[in-house]
Batch of 2 targets.
Target 1
Amino acid sequence: MSSLQSLRLAHLHHSHTKGATTRHSLMRTSLSAVPVIDIRGLEGASRFSTISDIGKACREKGYFQVANHNIPSSTLYGALHVASAFFDSETDEKQRLMSDDITKPVRFHMIKEMVIGEEKIQRLFLKHYAHPLEEWIHMWPSEPLEYRNNMGTYSVEVRKLALQVMEAIMESLGLGRGYLKNQMHDGFQVMALHAYPLCEHTNPCPSFGIAPHSDYSIITIVLQSSPGLEELDPKTNTWELLPHRYDSLCVHVGNYLEVISNGLYKSAVHQVSSNRDSDRVSIASLHSLSIDEQVCVADKLITECTPKGYKDSNLRDFLRFLPINKGQHLQCNDYIDTLKIK
């Protein structure tokens, strides 16, 4: 595996086309294809139109990029730097945190696969709970030394953004900006870090970093070091390579927002393909209600014409779902499909 320390800051400034693989160059990469929301529009006279744009993106795509989010570049780069350093390290921290137990609040895992008859690392994965920060941060990796400070700072900042976006999404659904506000404030945040090594085989690479899936969250906010995140456009059923913009973040509609919206906003299906150009690191911040709090369809969105379409559920239900179905080669929407009322 090539050194993940090669993720220098200059690499973060690449455009959406620079360094694209053959696979990626065949995909739709139009800047206009992926909605970009200027989050500053939520302040002042343009709030209504910005909320309308957010609602349209959630309804038509299930994902959008956020610009002008006010998270400092130093905070973004600091988080990517320590993530890269952790994955690249040879310390005992990885062994201490390594586990197959998905219920652990902090867990490191190495995913391997057979590629052309040879076992290769497909992805390195680190997950840890992040809110309330003081409850979990002492369990996070202690190396590199800056890890807890840098990742803690980013997790706090991205959570502020998530609450702001959630408020706008609830308003776009006609539920009012205060809907679920207290529950979200006391809710759950999981940081899921991924490292994707170079694919050394033919171009395009015959493997995926992550196969198509949707997130077990209300919303997920993704920070990536370089291109690689691919979104399924629900209208055209084609994959779009998300343009990599300077300082940009991507918001995904998660399974539980699909439930709350009674299917008006569908979960974003996405994947990550391996490539031959560079190692890649991403940090997904998943936001939901507390682990045992039921998520249900908003009463206001249940009518005679639009009856309740989803069962009530919570995060613990999802955690039970995974071990029961372990080894079943789950598809991208298997969990949300179990919640649909037929």
Target 2
Amino acid sequence: MRTSLGIDPLARSVYLAMVDLPGAGVSELAERLKEDEETVRERLERLSALLLVVPGDTASGWRPVAPEVGLAAMLAREQDELARHRLQVEDSRLEVNRLLSEHARNGRDGMPGVEWLAGADAVWRRVTELAEGCEQEWLTVGPTERLAVSVTESAGPVDEILCRRGAASRTIVLESVRNDPEVMDRVRGRADSVGSIRTLPSLPAWMILCDRTHVVVPVATARSVVGAMVCGVESVTEAFAALFTRLWKEALPLTEARPRTRGTLSLQEQHVLRLWAQGLTDAAAARRMDVSLRTVRRLSERLTDRFGAQSRFQLGALAIAQGGIQAEDMA
């Protein structure tokens, strides 16, 4: 499980192994911990994001920060993050109240078939009501970012209802869940109980479709749910259903391992190219894919080297020319 400071047991073991074995390389750390090298590299990136390791001259490319320094800095960052989180929640609450007040003044009669919900309790209560009436299928995309465990656990009663009603369920989640063993355990449990789950490196929106007659679009900020729109307008639900169908075809089943690149682009590489084409910076692409900035930059270096490109524009053109992506992907 993950600690309150964001360190999972394996990341902690990697850090302690680096302290015990100064200068050890990735292969040596992997052998000591009986893990594969890619997993160790992922934990090193996580430790780097937490500033518990910094670039160094060792074989792994990193050196550990002294525990009394690194952990004290982490605690200070957690305190700052908590303060920012409280401000964001309060700002979000005020904004939701403002929008609802404005909507109330305008009247609901102008938007038949559309509901506006404020607060996580109202959202999950309405989602539960829809699940109780679900007769055929339940389609979910998202969330589009990693949310707090307490938020994701709110879907538990909904899963139980769908299982009891025998409704078919399909879900698309972020591929980054594969990097977190704790999250993967929860997701696998959902896959076993309610239906099929696939992954994509990035998702365009968080949505829940009930029998293709109602769509719920939750609004999340600061890793929590603040409200949602519920729409029963046929033209809108059909559009969201078409989007789900397209994403489902692109997504990788959770039961399948992420494909290694062998001459063609992986899903992750295709997605980062699309995000760059949309004008996103490396930092924005990392947030959209819920991965570290270092991971995006490593993808950039790998793609640039493979195609021999001198710029992002040339990289996109070469990827299209060699069939790695389609021209419409760059629109």
